[in-house]
Amino acid sequence: MTDPVPTTCMRCAVGCGHLQLGVDSGYGVGSVRGDVAHPVNRGLACQRGIRESADPDGEWLTRPLVREDGDLHPTTWDVALDRAVTGLGAAAVGDPDGVAVLGSGQQTNEAAYALGKLARGGLGTRFYDANTTLCMASAVRAYYDAFGSDAPPCTYEDIDGAATHVVWGANPAVAHPVMFRWIAESARTDGSRLVVVDPVATETADVADDHVAPDPGTDLALARAVLARVVERGDVERAFVAEATTGFETLADRLPDSEAAAAEAGVDAGTVDLLADALADPTLVYWGMGVNQSVQGTDTAAALIDMCLATGNLGPGTGPFSLTGQANSMGTRICSSKGSWPGQRPFDDPAERRLIAEAWDVPVDRLPDDTGPGPVGTLEAVDDGPVEAVYAVATNPVAGMPDATAVRERLDDAFLVVQDAFHTETVDHADVVLPAATWGESDGTTTNMERRVSRVRPATDLPPDVRTDLDTITTLGERLAPGLFPASDPEAVFEEFAALTAGTPADCSGISYDRLDEAGAVRWPAPDALSEGGYRYRTDPGGWEFETPSGLARFSSAVDGDLAEPTDDDYPLTLTTAREADGYNTGVRSRGGASEPAPRARVHPDTLAEAGVEPPATADGGGDADRGGDGERRAAATLGSRRGAIPVRPEPDPAVPTGLVWLPIHHPRTNEVTLPATDPKSDEPNLKQCAVRLTPGAPEEAVPGREPAAVDAGVSGGD
């Protein structure tokens, strides 16, 4: 048996070290366990990360495919690449914006960097984005607005030092099991506590000391109520505010009356006091998609940062900590030229544009003038131009984007190249399909949510007709823009990227493969081979220096706005979406080649009764009466919005408040009903709130599907 290969789990952004063994014969990963030598997790590993690395349920893509006479057929790589180059090249003739490129937080740093280089430097398109914008863009914009730079200032080491943990609009017990273990253990110590803010009584709320349940879509109103109460009580940390921040007086003048704002959020004054009290101790404030995926996502994230600044909760053991979902969302942000040039170089700075153009050896006027409209706007540009072709890498927009029916129609109108390891809903609409390597098959690096870069290594050879993302991107890039990729092996591409970050806020120039092999993981900024980042913006001896023109952290001044889509008589309920323990992104690794046709809809029993919907009944009180003779589940209700209607399996659940319907974000039909409205500052979609109605009976198109396998998302120790 070969030695286990040290690598990094690519299931979520915690960045746990894994040890993987290839199968004895053939291709694939035979076993996975936590790596006790890795500095992030010290051997801990969640069962979901282990299972989805070693034995994903997805339908593998093993051959290139091209569309002929309306159907996809296996072909050779030469034919598939020729078809892709011809289609993409034709769309870019005369207008580089004829091609849209969609990347992913599931790629390695090297592949993400190469894709951005191809999109921005090879094609010159402004229509380039990644599915990271669907989950993290609002937090990113809020960090930039406050600190002048992206990424949490906190690190995992700060979790033990916090007395209070406030988890707002996130469910780390499900989404980040290893990290949640650290949070829960810290909160159990004497004098510590865990406070959860979420309309739903989540798995995280189940173990919290306090659960605050605001009305859906009112997070900004609640955060501003807490800020107002802190000011009213005289609990502002005036010395810190005066030393390290600017804009506080403007913020204070725009704050509402705390009781009025509390009422708007659907909570009482005592609840606001509870949150204000929590901030009096050393506090970490974590937030996730429940905050970011809103038309007010940036402003709400900014208000949570304001809460930390106003109470002096910045520094070791404290601070604003956005929880990242996808494994390499952070790496995509710092290296892919999506919202900034590598290293967070400002996109609109002429000097930075010249530097990038010279490094890539392309004309500076080929680089687009702006970063583009985000993924929703990118696909909307198919409707009336200029986008005529789409290149999608490791992403599934048909299932992951809001208003999915419109997304399908747009992709059918475009020439579509899909590069993925698994058969996704988007593959079904492709003109060319390029099979890609997945976890355990790829070489490179990734970056976790606390800014640590670590190695990704293959534990198995590639199947004969599968290529890595980096290989395919550079091959296409050389044919579309000859000379763009003088180097295409992972280490050389990483060195090129790292050199471009020298002297930037996200400096990775002191990181190398050799250093990662020795250290396991290195946190940026790392400007030389001996240094690495700690708590951001902290200077010795105890001062502060932010990446803003003034060197001070900036308070926001946003005011609460209206819901993106309020309920009314026709659509009286509110839809929210969230992760399930056995789901990953759009679920292609966990639900197999076929999905349950009707997602489960968690609904309060009183809401079901008012809608006249009977939950599936069984003789023994279980949930099998809605199954056909073959044991497959059938829908019992229809969930409709102004975008469409889908079959659902209603599940009575008092953990969901009345008037709310909960759907899993991973299910491929969920986004047929969600709203394509976006945050005007971040372009992130409003995936967490829209108006819906629930009616008895399934739509005509509902057909039986397959029961998904249960997955244990618990945490195990390494050995």
From TrEMBL:
Superkingdom as given in the UniProt entry: Archaea
Keywords carried by this UniProt record: 4Fe-4S, Iron, Iron-sulfur, Metal-binding, Oxidoreductase
Region (Disordered): 576-632, 697-719
Domain 4Fe-4S Mo/W bis-MGD-type: 2-56
Enzyme class: oxidoreductase
Gene3D superfamilies named among the record's database cross-references: 2.40.40.20, 3.40.50.740, ADC-like domains (2.20.25.90), Dimethylsulfoxide Reductase, domain 2 (3.40.228.10)
Enzyme Commission numbers on file: 1.7.7.2
The keyword 4Fe-4S is annotated on this UniProt entry: yes
GO MF annotations in UniProt: 4 iron, 4 sulfur cluster binding; ferredoxin-nitrate reductase activity; metal ion binding
Stated name of the protein: Assimilatory nitrate reductase NasA
Organism field: Halobaculum lipolyticum
